[in-house]
Each structure stands twice: as structure tokens, then as C-alpha cells.
Amino acid sequence: MRPFAAWQVIQAMSTDLHGMGAAAAPTPPAFDVTVVLPTYNERDNICDLIDAIWRELESLGWRFEILVVDDDSPDGTAAVVRARFGAVDGCAPRAEDAAQADQAVRLCVRTADKGLAKSIRHGLELARGQTLVVMDTDFNHDPAMIPQMVDLLRYYDLVIGSRFVMRGGMEDALRYRYSQFYNVFIRALLHTQIQDNLSGFFAVRRDRLFELQPLFSRIFYGYGDYFIRLLLLAWRSNWKILEVPVFYILRRHGDSKTGFWRIFRDYTAAVLRLRLFGL
Ligand SMILES: Nc1nc2c(ncn2[C@@H]2O[C@H](COP(=O)(O)OP(=O)(O)O)[C@@H](O)[C@H]2O)c(=O)[nH]1
Ligand SMILES: [Mg+2]
Counting ligands in written order, which one lies closest to the CA of residue 74? Predict the structure, then answer.
């Protein structure tokens, strides 16, 4: 990508942010990009992932923050981040020291109201980037995709890393088939055209996301089902949505927190609720 492209993204976004009278975000954007990383027991992955994201974004000359939102993982995830990066306290709504730097690692350790979706909401509300990216921290999601996903926000409101568009995929072939089938079910019930409603790897324009803020508590609860709700709302709000192909590799270290039957039950309940009662 050409280096000036990022500047154009930022320019375009700030114009819209002011021009559209978007709902005020909790903190003013100080960075071009915030990458929100929800973690639970990711001690052996998190530092390598931050390094990889840093390499991808630094070469583009972007101002960025990487915000780790950890649910007080018993394996010491927060401690390794602090030891390696000396991360500033990311839970403080205005971490002025971080805003001084062009790049920063922030760490927010949550001890109450835990859970994946609530951590992501917390991270998004603390984030100070014009563009917000959310991804897994186990290398399922490829950090090399971030630059193009952010760049495409010049044309779209939301860019999803999708396993089910051409050249997308997943190393775990069985889970790929299950997810593909489940997405057919979601589309049939919710009447959308989104191919990967379970991705959780996305980049969104800050101004667009915060237009939804009054509805955040109806979206961000539970586990990955928050993404189904977010996408449905985005779809019904006529957002411009693009799916770009991503290939999920297996997690590098540690265990998945996704239990098949629990997820199947919870997601099906979530989709049926959306179908019957809306958001
Ligand atoms: N903060 C927080 N992060 C979580 C929680 N559960 C899972 N995660 C993170 O969410 C991401 C997705 O979880 P993962 O186990 O990789 O699920 P999978 O990709 O479906 O197998 C990973 O980065 C996890 O560390 C949680 O309760 N709180
Ligand atoms: Mg994962």
C-alpha cells in the first residue's frame, strides 16, 4: 500500500466525523488505528502477536495503539505484557502519556463483569483510534491483513475478515464446514448476505460504530454471538460492508475457549431471539 493512503483514510474520516454530526465517542481520537485484543489465558501468544502487529503497522507510518483487554487471566497474560512492553494503564479513559507517543501498547485488566463481548465493548470504548480493529490473540487471525482492512475503510464502513469468500478458509477443515453450514442458517433466518457472521475479525470506522452506542448494551454481551448482533444492526443500518478473504491458521499456543455444544446452544438462542424479537 502506498504510504500516503493512510493519511487519506484519516483525512476522509475526520471530515466525515465532523460533517455527519456523529454521536460523540467517549474519548477523542488520538491515533490513526487502535487494535483491540481481548485476551484470556494467552500468555504464550500475546507478545508475539503484538510484535507482529507492530511490524505491520509501523512500516506504514501510522500512529497506532494496541490495546490488550485482559479478563485477569490466571496464566499471567497481563504480567507478560507489562514485563515486555511496560504497557501504560489502558483502563484509564484518558491515558495522556500514551497519546504523546506515535505508537503505544496499553493494557486494561478487568476484574469485574468479565466475558469476551463485554471486554471487546470495553476496549472499543477506551480506544482512541480513528479506525478500530478487533481480532483474536491466538494467531487465528492474520495480522498481515490489518493494513488492507483499514485501507478499505476509505470505501466501506465495516470490513470483515471472512473465511467464506473466494480464497478464504480455515486450517481446521471440520470446524470450517460446521461454521459454513451455520452461516447458511444465520442468513436464512436473518435475511442478510453476510457470509461470515462468526468471524470476529473486523475493522470499523469509529464514527459509524459510535452511532450505535445507545444500543451497545443490546449488542455486546455473551461470547462471539455479539458479532451476529453487530452485523445485523450494521446491515439494517445500511452500512457499506465488505468481506475480504482471510485464512484462519490453528492457534499457536494454549487452548480454545470455544466449547462446541455451548456455543451451538448460545448462538442458536441468539439467532432465534433476533429473528423473533429483533435487537
Ligand atoms: N477478555 C476476554 N477475552 C476472551 C475471553 N474468552 C476468550 N477470549 C479471547 O477471545 C479470543 C477468541 O477466543 P478463542 O479461544 O481463540 O476462540 P476460538 O477462536 O473460537 O477458538 C481470544 O483472543 C481469547 O483469548 C474472555 O472471557 N475475556
Ligand atoms: Mg481463536
Answer: 1
